[in-house]
Amino acid sequence: MQCDRFNHQRRLYKPGAPCAARLNRIDPTACRHEEAFLRAVEEAKVLKERPSVADLGVLYGLYKQATEGNVGTERPGILDFVGRKKWDAWKSREGLTKQEAMESYIKAVEGFKEKYGI
């Protein structure tokens, strides 16, 4: 079960702020995963080197799967090269649960921290 603060008020979430799990509404491990995921998102933004296009696609696909779930839109048109790459990266993660996508994202960022530095 996901932290309802993450699912419903994602834009209002501030790391360290009390979440629903701490208020005894849901499983506390969900909130820990959410906090680790948000920390990884911030770490991915400050890598010393810009990741390759393929690595950015991995991060994008996992991020979208973790935050929005399976793809719910049609593939962009043939002239929208960037949109198609993003859609393909997200579609390749289809079927992962939000929890699995968060965990994969965290692991990917850990690998990229070693590869690109932080």
TrEMBL record:
Q: What is this protein called?
A: Acyl-CoA-binding protein
What the entry lists under InterPro entries is as follows: Acyl-CoA-binding_prot_CS, Acyl-CoA-binding_protein, Acyl-CoA-binding_sf, FERM/acyl-CoA-bd_prot_sf
Taxonomically, the superkingdom here is: Eukaryota
Gene Ontology MF annotations: fatty-acyl-CoA binding
UniProt similarity note: Belongs to the ACBP family.
A Pfam family name for this chain?
ACBP
| Keywords, ordered alphabetically | Lipid-binding
**Which PROSITE patterns does UniProt cross-reference here?**
ACB_1, ACB_2
What organism is listed for this UniProt entry?
Merluccius polli (Benguela hake)
Q: Name one GO biological process term.
A: fatty acid metabolic process
Where is each ACB domain found? 33-118
Transmembrane stretches, start-end? none
Gene3D superfamilies the UniProt entry points to = 1.20.80.10
